Amino acid sequence: MSQLTGYLAAKDFIAELRQEIALYPDLVIQRELNDLIVVSGPIKDLCWSQNTWIDIQSRAFQSITEAAKILKAHSKFWAQYGVAHFRRGELIQNSLPKWKITARSFLGELPKYPLSSFCLEDSNTLWFSACCSSPFPNGQIQFIEDKTNPPSRAYLKLWEIFTLSKKAPKAGEICVDLGSSPGGWTWVLANCGAIVTSVDKAELAPQVLKMKNVHAMKKDAFSIRPGDLSALGIRAEKIDWLCSDIICYPAKLYELILSWIESGRVKNFVITIKFQGETDFATLAKFRAISGSRLQHLCHNKHEVTWSYFT
Ligand SMILES: C[S@@+](CC[C@H](N)C(=O)[O-])C[C@H]1O[C@@H](n2cnc3c(N)ncnc32)[C@H](O)[C@@H]1O
After folding, report:
1. Domain layout of the chain by residue ranges
2. 4-139 sits in which CATH class?
Protein backbone atom coordinates (compact mmCIF):
# COMPACT_ATOMS: atom_id res chain seq x y z
CA MET A 1 0.00 0.00 0.00
CA SER A 2 1.26 3.51 -0.76
CA GLN A 3 1.87 6.05 1.98
CA LEU A 4 -0.98 6.62 4.43
CA THR A 5 -2.10 10.08 5.51
CA GLY A 6 -4.66 10.95 8.18
CA TYR A 7 -6.91 13.94 7.57
CA LEU A 8 -8.73 15.22 10.66
CA ALA A 9 -11.92 16.94 9.57
CA ALA A 10 -12.74 20.41 10.78
CA LYS A 11 -15.46 20.10 13.45
CA ASP A 12 -18.85 19.27 11.87
CA PHE A 13 -17.34 19.01 8.36
CA ILE A 14 -16.55 15.33 7.95
CA ALA A 15 -18.96 15.11 4.98
CA GLU A 16 -17.11 17.96 3.23
CA LEU A 17 -13.77 16.26 3.88
CA ARG A 18 -15.09 12.98 2.40
CA GLN A 19 -16.34 14.84 -0.68
CA GLU A 20 -13.03 16.63 -1.07
CA ILE A 21 -11.11 13.34 -0.88
CA ALA A 22 -13.46 11.86 -3.51
CA LEU A 23 -12.37 14.59 -5.96
CA TYR A 24 -8.95 12.94 -6.23
CA PRO A 25 -8.92 9.61 -8.09
CA ASP A 26 -5.50 8.78 -6.61
CA LEU A 27 -6.82 8.89 -3.01
CA VAL A 28 -8.50 5.87 -1.43
CA ILE A 29 -10.13 5.93 2.00
CA GLN A 30 -8.80 3.07 4.12
CA ARG A 31 -10.34 3.80 7.53
CA GLU A 32 -12.47 6.29 9.38
CA LEU A 33 -11.68 6.85 13.04
CA ASN A 34 -14.41 9.31 14.04
CA ASP A 35 -13.38 12.52 12.22
CA LEU A 36 -9.95 11.19 11.23
CA ILE A 37 -9.94 9.73 7.72
CA VAL A 38 -6.99 7.50 6.84
CA VAL A 39 -6.23 7.68 3.14
CA SER A 40 -3.71 6.01 0.84
CA GLY A 41 -2.15 8.01 -1.97
CA PRO A 42 -0.09 11.16 -2.29
CA ILE A 43 -0.42 13.87 0.38
CA LYS A 44 -2.81 16.68 -0.57
CA ASP A 45 -3.45 20.08 0.98
CA LEU A 46 -7.14 19.42 1.70
CA CYS A 47 -8.98 22.51 2.85
CA TRP A 48 -11.44 20.63 5.07
CA SER A 49 -8.59 18.96 7.00
CA GLN A 50 -7.86 20.76 10.27
CA ASN A 51 -4.79 18.70 11.01
CA THR A 52 -3.06 16.40 8.54
CA TRP A 53 -1.26 13.38 10.00
CA ILE A 54 1.58 12.65 7.61
CA ASP A 55 2.79 9.06 7.30
CA ILE A 56 0.20 7.77 9.80
CA GLN A 57 0.95 4.28 11.15
CA SER A 58 -0.89 1.72 13.24
CA ARG A 59 0.60 -0.62 15.81
CA ALA A 60 -0.80 -3.27 18.14
CA PHE A 61 0.18 -2.92 21.81
CA GLN A 62 -0.57 -4.75 25.04
CA SER A 63 0.14 -2.27 27.83
CA ILE A 64 0.19 1.48 28.49
CA THR A 65 3.96 1.23 28.93
CA GLU A 66 4.37 -0.46 25.57
CA ALA A 67 2.21 2.15 23.78
CA ALA A 68 4.17 5.00 25.39
CA LYS A 69 7.44 3.31 24.38
CA ILE A 70 6.30 3.05 20.74
CA LEU A 71 5.33 6.74 20.67
CA LYS A 72 8.50 7.93 22.45
CA ALA A 73 10.59 6.16 19.83
CA HIS A 74 9.03 8.39 17.15
CA SER A 75 8.65 11.84 18.75
CA LYS A 76 8.76 13.72 22.05
CA PHE A 77 5.46 15.57 22.40
CA TRP A 78 2.11 13.94 21.67
CA ALA A 79 -1.54 14.96 21.72
CA GLN A 80 -4.35 12.44 21.87
CA TYR A 81 -7.23 12.64 19.43
CA GLY A 82 -10.07 10.94 21.27
CA VAL A 83 -11.64 8.19 19.17
CA ALA A 84 -12.19 5.27 21.55
CA HIS A 85 -10.90 4.27 24.98
CA PHE A 86 -10.20 7.90 25.79
CA ARG A 87 -9.31 7.11 29.42
CA ARG A 88 -6.72 4.52 28.30
CA GLY A 89 -5.41 7.14 25.87
CA GLU A 90 -5.08 9.58 28.77
CA LEU A 91 -3.01 7.05 30.70
CA ILE A 92 -0.72 6.76 27.66
CA GLN A 93 -0.62 10.57 27.40
CA ASN A 94 0.35 10.80 31.09
CA SER A 95 3.28 8.43 30.49
CA LEU A 96 4.70 10.76 27.83
CA PRO A 97 6.68 14.02 28.22
CA LYS A 98 4.43 16.90 29.35
CA TRP A 99 3.71 19.96 27.21
CA LYS A 100 1.50 22.97 27.59
CA ILE A 101 0.09 25.11 24.81
CA THR A 102 -1.56 28.24 26.09
CA ALA A 103 -3.98 30.59 24.33
CA ARG A 104 -2.05 32.80 21.89
CA SER A 105 -2.02 36.52 21.45
CA PHE A 106 -2.54 38.03 17.98
CA LEU A 107 0.67 37.60 15.92
CA GLY A 108 2.26 35.88 18.93
CA GLU A 109 4.83 33.16 18.37
CA LEU A 110 3.70 29.69 17.36
CA PRO A 111 4.78 26.71 19.49
CA LYS A 112 8.48 26.06 18.91
CA TYR A 113 8.32 22.27 19.02
CA PRO A 114 6.34 19.95 16.75
CA LEU A 115 3.29 18.26 18.24
CA SER A 116 2.63 14.69 17.16
CA SER A 117 -0.79 12.98 17.33
CA PHE A 118 -2.13 9.59 18.36
CA CYS A 119 -5.46 7.90 18.86
CA LEU A 120 -6.73 4.50 19.92
CA GLU A 121 -8.89 2.54 17.49
CA ASP A 122 -9.56 -0.03 20.21
CA SER A 123 -7.92 -0.95 23.50
CA ASN A 124 -4.92 -2.54 21.77
CA THR A 125 -4.53 -0.62 18.50
CA LEU A 126 -2.68 2.64 18.28
CA TRP A 127 -2.71 5.01 15.28
CA PHE A 128 -0.10 7.75 15.27
CA SER A 129 1.78 10.32 13.25
CA ALA A 130 4.99 11.98 14.37
CA CYS A 131 4.60 14.74 11.80
CA CYS A 132 1.37 16.75 11.74
CA SER A 133 0.56 19.88 9.78
CA SER A 134 -0.56 21.90 12.81
CA PRO A 135 1.51 22.70 15.91
CA PHE A 136 -1.75 22.81 17.93
CA PRO A 137 -3.61 19.85 19.48
CA ASN A 138 -6.05 18.56 16.86
CA GLY A 139 -5.30 21.66 14.78
CA GLN A 140 -7.08 24.02 17.15
CA ILE A 141 -5.49 27.39 17.84
CA GLN A 142 -6.99 29.35 20.70
CA PHE A 143 -6.60 33.06 21.28
CA ILE A 144 -6.69 35.32 24.29
CA GLU A 145 -9.82 36.97 22.99
CA ASP A 146 -10.67 40.67 23.11
CA LYS A 147 -14.24 40.66 24.32
CA THR A 148 -14.49 44.45 24.60
CA ASN A 149 -13.35 46.23 21.47
CA PRO A 150 -14.19 44.30 18.26
CA PRO A 151 -17.86 44.58 17.28
CA SER A 152 -18.10 40.96 16.07
CA ARG A 153 -16.25 37.66 16.61
CA ALA A 154 -15.35 37.58 12.90
CA TYR A 155 -12.09 39.31 13.87
CA LEU A 156 -10.82 35.89 15.02
CA LYS A 157 -10.63 34.69 11.39
CA LEU A 158 -8.13 37.42 10.51
CA TRP A 159 -6.26 36.90 13.78
CA GLU A 160 -5.96 33.20 12.91
CA ILE A 161 -4.78 33.51 9.32
CA PHE A 162 -2.37 36.37 10.08
CA THR A 163 -0.92 34.59 13.13
CA LEU A 164 -0.55 31.21 11.39
CA SER A 165 0.92 32.65 8.18
CA LYS A 166 3.06 35.19 10.07
CA LYS A 167 1.91 37.76 7.55
CA ALA A 168 -0.23 40.79 8.32
CA PRO A 169 -0.65 44.36 7.10
CA LYS A 170 2.08 46.73 8.23
CA ALA A 171 1.64 50.28 9.43
CA GLY A 172 0.75 52.57 6.54
CA GLU A 173 -0.25 49.78 4.15
CA ILE A 174 -3.47 50.19 2.20
CA CYS A 175 -6.34 47.78 2.87
CA VAL A 176 -9.79 47.47 1.37
CA ASP A 177 -12.32 45.51 3.45
CA LEU A 178 -15.37 44.42 1.44
CA GLY A 179 -18.52 43.40 3.32
CA SER A 180 -17.07 44.92 6.47
CA SER A 181 -20.02 45.64 8.76
CA PRO A 182 -20.15 45.64 11.77
CA GLY A 183 -16.36 45.99 11.53
CA GLY A 184 -14.42 43.15 13.19
CA TRP A 185 -12.04 42.81 10.23
CA THR A 186 -11.70 46.58 9.76
CA TRP A 187 -10.87 46.82 13.48
CA VAL A 188 -8.06 44.21 13.06
CA LEU A 189 -6.63 45.87 9.93
CA ALA A 190 -6.77 49.35 11.48
CA ASN A 191 -5.11 48.07 14.65
CA CYS A 192 -2.23 46.80 12.50
CA GLY A 193 -1.73 50.46 11.59
CA ALA A 194 -3.04 50.03 8.04
CA ILE A 195 -5.15 52.64 6.25
CA VAL A 196 -8.49 50.93 5.72
CA THR A 197 -11.27 51.62 3.23
CA SER A 198 -14.22 49.75 4.64
CA VAL A 199 -17.06 48.95 2.21
CA ASP A 200 -20.52 47.72 3.15
CA LYS A 201 -24.13 48.55 2.50
CA ALA A 202 -24.64 48.45 6.27
CA GLU A 203 -23.15 50.66 9.00
CA LEU A 204 -19.90 50.13 10.87
CA ALA A 205 -20.04 49.99 14.64
CA PRO A 206 -19.35 53.48 16.10
CA GLN A 207 -16.10 52.48 17.83
CA VAL A 208 -14.68 51.27 14.47
CA LEU A 209 -16.09 54.15 12.45
CA LYS A 210 -14.27 56.64 14.65
CA MET A 211 -10.81 55.00 14.27
CA LYS A 212 -8.65 57.61 12.60
CA ASN A 213 -7.27 55.31 9.88
CA VAL A 214 -10.71 53.97 8.83
CA HIS A 215 -12.58 55.42 5.88
CA ALA A 216 -16.09 53.95 5.59
CA MET A 217 -17.98 53.76 2.29
CA LYS A 218 -21.64 52.78 2.15
CA LYS A 219 -21.53 50.97 -1.18
CA ASP A 220 -22.32 47.74 -2.98
CA ALA A 221 -18.95 45.94 -3.25
CA PHE A 222 -19.97 44.67 -6.70
CA SER A 223 -20.43 48.21 -8.01
CA ILE A 224 -16.74 49.07 -7.56
CA ARG A 225 -14.57 48.82 -10.66
CA PRO A 226 -11.27 47.29 -9.49
CA GLY A 227 -9.23 49.43 -11.89
CA ASP A 228 -10.62 52.60 -10.37
CA LEU A 229 -9.03 52.96 -6.94
CA SER A 230 -9.76 56.68 -6.93
CA ALA A 231 -13.48 55.84 -6.57
CA LEU A 232 -12.49 54.40 -3.18
CA GLY A 233 -10.61 57.57 -2.34
CA ILE A 234 -7.28 55.72 -2.77
CA ARG A 235 -4.52 57.63 -4.53
CA ALA A 236 -1.95 54.82 -4.58
CA GLU A 237 -1.38 52.60 -7.64
CA LYS A 238 -1.90 49.38 -5.67
CA ILE A 239 -3.76 48.04 -2.67
CA ASP A 240 -1.61 46.04 -0.25
CA TRP A 241 -4.48 43.91 1.08
CA LEU A 242 -7.93 43.16 -0.29
CA CYS A 243 -10.08 41.44 2.31
CA SER A 244 -13.64 40.24 1.83
CA ASP A 245 -16.10 38.62 4.20
CA ILE A 246 -19.12 39.37 1.97
CA ILE A 247 -22.09 37.04 2.21
CA CYS A 248 -22.88 36.07 -1.38
CA TYR A 249 -22.91 33.10 -3.74
CA PRO A 250 -19.40 31.64 -4.22
CA ALA A 251 -19.63 31.85 -8.03
CA LYS A 252 -20.46 35.56 -7.85
CA LEU A 253 -17.61 36.12 -5.41
CA TYR A 254 -15.21 34.28 -7.72
CA GLU A 255 -16.05 36.65 -10.60
CA LEU A 256 -15.53 39.64 -8.30
CA ILE A 257 -12.16 38.42 -7.01
CA LEU A 258 -11.03 37.46 -10.51
CA SER A 259 -11.71 41.01 -11.67
CA TRP A 260 -9.56 42.34 -8.82
CA ILE A 261 -6.76 39.87 -9.67
CA GLU A 262 -6.91 40.83 -13.35
CA SER A 263 -6.72 44.51 -12.44
CA GLY A 264 -3.17 43.79 -11.19
CA ARG A 265 -3.75 46.28 -8.39
CA VAL A 266 -3.80 43.98 -5.36
CA LYS A 267 -0.78 42.49 -3.60
CA ASN A 268 -2.42 40.23 -0.98
CA PHE A 269 -5.89 38.73 -0.60
CA VAL A 270 -7.84 37.23 2.31
CA ILE A 271 -11.30 36.18 1.17
CA THR A 272 -14.03 34.19 2.90
CA ILE A 273 -16.05 31.90 0.61
CA LYS A 274 -19.37 31.24 2.32
CA PHE A 275 -21.87 28.48 1.59
CA GLN A 276 -25.59 28.37 2.05
CA GLY A 277 -26.83 24.79 1.91
CA GLU A 278 -24.54 22.65 -0.28
CA THR A 279 -20.81 23.30 -0.41
CA ASP A 280 -19.94 24.59 -3.88
CA PHE A 281 -16.94 22.37 -4.73
CA ALA A 282 -16.91 23.51 -8.38
CA THR A 283 -16.23 27.12 -7.39
CA LEU A 284 -13.76 26.01 -4.72
CA ALA A 285 -11.82 24.22 -7.49
CA LYS A 286 -11.64 27.49 -9.45
CA PHE A 287 -10.28 29.37 -6.44
CA ARG A 288 -7.82 26.54 -5.74
CA ALA A 289 -6.55 26.70 -9.34
CA ILE A 290 -5.31 30.27 -8.87
CA SER A 291 -1.57 29.80 -8.81
CA GLY A 292 0.18 30.53 -5.50
CA SER A 293 -3.04 30.71 -3.50
CA ARG A 294 -4.32 28.56 -0.64
CA LEU A 295 -7.73 27.39 0.53
CA GLN A 296 -8.18 26.49 4.19
CA HIS A 297 -10.92 25.99 6.69
CA LEU A 298 -9.74 28.02 9.66
CA CYS A 299 -10.75 26.98 13.18
CA HIS A 300 -12.82 30.16 13.30
CA ASN A 301 -14.58 29.51 9.98
CA LYS A 302 -18.13 28.20 10.02
CA HIS A 303 -19.62 26.74 6.79
CA GLU A 304 -17.08 28.71 4.79
CA VAL A 305 -13.43 28.55 3.80
CA THR A 306 -10.72 31.15 3.56
CA TRP A 307 -8.91 31.76 0.28
CA SER A 308 -5.62 33.60 0.58
CA TYR A 309 -2.89 34.80 -1.69
CA PHE A 310 0.24 36.37 -0.22
CA THR A 311 3.06 38.00 -2.14
C1 LIG B 1 -20.37 38.28 7.76
S2 LIG B 1 -20.72 39.96 7.59
C3 LIG B 1 -19.11 40.64 7.67
C4 LIG B 1 -18.54 40.66 9.05
C5 LIG B 1 -17.30 41.53 9.11
N6 LIG B 1 -16.20 40.96 8.38
C7 LIG B 1 -16.84 41.75 10.54
O8 LIG B 1 -15.71 41.40 10.84
O9 LIG B 1 -17.59 42.33 11.33
C10 LIG B 1 -21.09 40.08 5.91
C11 LIG B 1 -21.35 41.49 5.43
O12 LIG B 1 -21.41 41.47 4.00
C13 LIG B 1 -22.22 42.57 3.64
N14 LIG B 1 -22.58 42.49 2.23
C15 LIG B 1 -23.34 41.56 1.61
N16 LIG B 1 -23.45 41.86 0.30
C17 LIG B 1 -22.72 42.97 0.08
C18 LIG B 1 -22.42 43.77 -1.04
N19 LIG B 1 -22.91 43.46 -2.25
N20 LIG B 1 -21.64 44.85 -0.91
C21 LIG B 1 -21.15 45.19 0.30
N22 LIG B 1 -21.39 44.47 1.43
C23 LIG B 1 -22.18 43.39 1.33
C24 LIG B 1 -23.38 42.50 4.61
O25 LIG B 1 -24.03 43.75 4.70
C26 LIG B 1 -22.67 42.08 5.90
O27 LIG B 1 -22.42 43.21 6.70
Report:
1. 4-139, 155-309
2. alpha beta
DSSP secondary structure letter of residue 137 = G
Residues 6+ apart with CB under 8 A from 284: 47, 250, 273, 295, 305
- Using CA atoms, how far residue 288 sits from 46, 59, 254, 294, 295, in Å, is 10, 36, 11, 7, 6
Question: Which residue from 177, 178, 180 has its CB within 8 A of the most atoms of ligand 1, so it is best to mutate?
Answer: 180
CB of 275 closer than 8 Å to CB of 303 = yes
Segment 89-110 shows an average pLDDT of: 96
Select from 164, 115, 113 the least CA-distant residue to 136. 115
Cα separation, 177 vs 299, in Å, equals 21
To the question of domain 155-309 being in CATH 3.90.70.10, the answer is no
- Mean pLDDT across the stretch 241-261? 97
List CB contacts of 83: < 8 A, sequence separation 6 or more.
Answer: 33, 34, 36, 119, 120, 121, 127
Rg (CA), the chain: 22
220 C-alpha vs ligand 1 centroid, how far in Å? 10
What is the rounded CA–CA span in Å between residue 96 and residue 86?
15
User: What's the pLDDT tens digit per position in 129-178?
Assistant: 999 999 999 999 999 999 999 999 999 999 999 999 999 999 999 999 99
**113 C-alpha to ligand 1 centroid (Å):** 38
